[in-house]
Design goal:
The chain has helices spanning 4-15, 26-36, 38-58, 100-167, 173-207, 232-242, 244-264, 312-378, 384-419, 422-426; strands spanning 21-24, 64-68, 87-98, 215-218, 270-280, 295-304. By secondary structure, the chain is α+β, with helices and mostly antiparallel strands. It has a four-stranded antiparallel sheet, with no helix packed on it. Strands 1-4 form a two-stranded parallel ribbon. Helix 3 (38-58) packs antiparallel against helix 4 (100-167) and helix 6 packs across helix 9 (384-419).
């Protein structure tokens, strides 16, 4: 029962259907993604499997000790069921001394382990990028929801003013219907954004490995701009140098070459160290041998020279060499893809920055227009409705600016991801 208690304490929130809200900064979310993202955890499991495979391939070079009994009734020449001399106790030690194919398989397993480590590192980069994108989207949705809520407040004021003017007979009832429609549309958009915000928070929590039902909320902060490569050429050079995809492919090429060599080495001789001991029983030998020695031992080297292995080894080696050629094509394709991705990401960044600059000027124009109207309102020269309508325009411009600024941040993430410097920039 005491052993089950920690498990019950861990699982009790899930059993009770409780959920938590986690407030994280972008940096905290990225750090969690590198540790507990489900894809990262699975990749690390595969890395551990590759590590254990190295031990498995080394196994023939470790001594094996077998002990047992070969006691049996024998008629005629003394011989047990397994073909050895009948014995009370017997022990045998065997280990490979020289086995070139197995040595190459060990080297292949070590290379596969290195490739698995690279793939695990690549999964961390992918998880960090996906979490960062989801974080920015959640952050943008939350900001948009706040602005939409403020817009609904302004529309409520406009509706109140319009109702007063209709009562006083200074405007048509149709204007009131239009104000009611505008308010309903704004509230509907706010509800849509609230739902999108909650769904995005749930998905972000899932990417960070939290239990089902948990949510992750973004924290408002003044983040310094992410360090970007100085030029597109520098980004491309960094991408080639740090690309996990290229390194994984190169590791697979090396592994396949070692595999081909291991098949070609099957014709080489193999040496095993063998030592054995047996305690023999007198009654099995008294009729067949004049002199009996109960303690029997051997120590020597077992030699095996393959004379005819068949065509399978050569066929397997040819398959491995064909895989090497195939991987070489994939390397060239990957390098071309990296170059295209880096160039396109820079183009998207330039386009997003231009759109953001335009939307920023639109915000400045709307702010200035609102300032002028507020001065006129205080002087009694314009009605409140006109001021609130100017606030709506300002909110719309801010919504456009936030959307374009979010696109700029996403484009920067894409540039950093393509250049292989994302994790370092976010941490």
């Amino acid at each position: 029962m005491q052993r089950l208690l920690p498990f019950v304490l861990i699982c009790s929130p899930l059993l009770l259907g409780q959920s938590e809200v986690h407030k994280l900064t972008l940096k905290e979310a990225v750090e969690l993604a590198s540790r507990q993202n489900p894809d990262v955890l699975m990749a690390r499991i595969e890395e551990e499997r590759a590590t254990q495979n190295v031990t498995i391939q080394k196994d023939p070079f470790f001594p094996k000790l077998y002990a047992g009994s070969g006691a049996a009734w024998s008629s005629g020449y003394p011989q047990s069921i397994d073909g050895n001399a009948p014995s009370i106790v017997q022990a045998r030690v065997i280990m490979s001394v020289f086995n070139k194919p197995q040595t190459l398989r060990i080297a292949q397993a070590k290379e596969s382990k290195r490739g698995a480590a690279l793939e695990a590192s690549s999964s961390v980069d992918d998880a960090v990028y996906e979490v960062a994108l989801r974080y920015l989207e959640t952050e943008h949705t939350a900001s948009t929801f706040d602005l939409q809520s403020k817009q609904a407040e302004s529309l409520e004021k406009i509706l109140g003013t319009t109702q007063t003017r209709v009562t006083e007979g200074r405007t048509l009832p149709l204007d009131q219907k239009k104000a009611e429609l505008d308010l309903a549309v704004s509230k509907d958009k706010a509800l849509e954004l609230q739902i999108a915000k909650e769904n995005s928070e749930l998905l972000l929590a899932s990417l960070l490995g939290y239990p089902p039902g948990d949510r992750v909320q973004t924290v408002k902060e003044d983040r310094p701009p992410m360090a970007m490569p100085e030029t597109e050429e520098a980004a491309l050079s960094a991408a080639y140098e740090s690309s996990k995809q290229l390194k994984v492919l190169e590791s697979k090429i090396q592994s396949k070459r070692l595999e081909a060599k291991s098949y070609k080495a099957e014709w080489l001789p193999q040496f095993d160290l063998v030592a054995q001991y047996a305690l023999l029983a007198h009654y099995n030998y008294e009729d067949s041998f004049r002199r009996f020695q109960p303690n029997n031992g051997q120590l020597g080297v077992s030699f095996k020279l393959p004379l005819l292995n068949g065509p399978a080894g050569r066929a397997y080696a040819s398959q491995a060499e064909l895989d090497v050629a195939k991987l070489g094509i994939q390397v060239r394709q990957t390098r071309s893809k990296i170059q295209t991705t880096v160039h396109q990401s820079y183009q998207d960044l330039r386009r997003a920055e231009s759109a953001r600059d335009v939307s920023r000027k639109a915000v400045e124009w709307a702010q200035e227009q609102l300032r002028v109207l507020l001065e006129r309102f205080e002087a009694g020269r314009v009605p409140l409705k006109e001021v609130e309508e100017a606030r709506l325009v300002e909110n719309e411009k801010w919504l456009s600016y936030f959307a374009n600024n979010n696109l700029v941040e996403r484009a920067r993430l894409a540039v950093l991801k393509s250049s292989g410097t994302l994790a370092a920039a976010l941490r």
